[in-house]
Structure formats: C-alpha cells, structure tokens
Amino acid sequence: MQKTSISSIHVSDAEKNLHGALLLDVRTPAEYEEAHIEGSVLHPLTGLDVDRVKSLAGSKGGCFVICRSGNRAKQAAEMLSSAGVESIHILDGGMQAWESAGLPVTRGSKTMSLERQVRIAAGALVFTGAALGYFVNPAWIGLSAFVGAGLVFAGITDTCGMGMIIARMPWNNRRPRGTCCAN
C-alpha cells in the first residue's frame, strides 16, 4: 500500500490544480447550499463515508478537501488518509479564502453559518445559567461554568463538541438541490 500524503494548498495554487481532482466539500448541507465550488461533491464531516469517498477519488488526480475555514477539512483529511486515500490536499482557509480571492462560487439560499449558530447557543446557555443562578438557585451557575469550560476546551483542541451537535440538527442537514453524492 502506498503512503498517503496530506498537504495544505493555497487557493491560488488550488485553482490551477482542481481540474481532474475530486473536490470534496465536508461542510453541512445548509452551508453547501449557500455557496460551493462548482463541481464539488458534498459529504458532510458528521457522516463522512470514507469508503464512498475513496471510490470516488480512485481515478482522480488527488482529493481537495474543502470546508468553511480549514478545520473540518483537516479532520476529514486525517480520516481519509487512515482509509488509504492518496494525495489529499486541504484548501488553506477553506471557502472563506476562496471567496475572499474572488474565485467563482455557485450560490443558493442564504443560511446562518455553523460558527454563528454555536456562538448563539453558547451565549444563550451562559445567559440562562447566570439568570437561573441569580433568580432560582445558585447551582444553575454551573451551567455557565460548563459552557465556559467547553469553549476553553474547544479553543485548546480546535474541536467543538457543540458545533458537532449543531451540525447534526435538521435545519443544517437539508439536502441541497442537485447534490448527487451526499451520503
């Protein structure tokens, strides 16, 4: 078995090398519907079928993994590498960098980003814990402490449990029209 490689690639270099490669978008269906690179296929990280991706990437000239900023793409790349997918490239900066560079995207309906949803949920939980702790029982302050500890953990590990849960919510998993390869 040949050794797999994972590399990070800048958008200016990626644009030149995308032809003939598998463009794998690992964001949520809602994020994909809002904007995606033409020709990319959707396989959300939350339900990534590595065997299916491996078969799609088989005869292609590499696999470019795309997410919003690059963090989920790194996780997906590790999973794909472990499954034996060869020549994996992570789009450095993700869709944010792609759009900032003025490169073409296919647009659909506007949605709220996963990061924004996490900030709203965390803020709501912290506020609720503080309010209940003040008005009902001081033990409720533990809710705010728990969320704060979770945010510190997410910052240190670059993994967000709340984000993974929210990504699985029904409003984030509507299937965009015309996605042929979503799991």
Structure description:
With 183 residues, the chain is an alpha/beta fold. The chain has two domains: 6-107, Rhodanese-like domain (Oxidized Rhodanese, domain 1, 3-Layer(aba) Sandwich), CATH 3.40.250.10; 114-172. The protein is 47% helix and 12% strand. The chain is built from eight helices and seven strands; from the N terminus they run E-H-E-H-E-E-H-E-H-E-H-E-H-H-H. The strands form two sheets. A five-stranded parallel sheet has the order 1-6-5-2-4. It has a two-stranded antiparallel ribbon with strand order 3-7. Strand 5 (63-66), helix 4 (71-82) and strand 6 form a beta-alpha-beta unit. The radius of gyration is 18 Å and the shape is elongated. The model has no long low-confidence stretch (mean pLDDT 89).
Task: Provide tags for this entry.
183 residues, alpha/beta, Oxidized Rhodanese, domain 1, 2 domains, five-stranded parallel beta sheet, two-stranded antiparallel sheet, 8 helices, 12% strand, elongated
Task: Give a quick precis of the structure.
The chain contains eight helices and seven strands. The protein has 183 residues and is an alpha/beta fold.
* Helix percentage range: 40-55%
Per the CATH scheme, the topology name of the largest domain is: Oxidized Rhodanese, domain 1
Low-pLDDT stretches are none
Distance between the termini: 27 Å
Shape: elongated
Number of domains: 2
* CATH architectural arrangement of the largest domain: 3-Layer(aba) Sandwich
> From N to C, what is the helix and strand string?
EHEHEEHEHEHEHHH
| Percent of sequence in beta strands | 5-15%
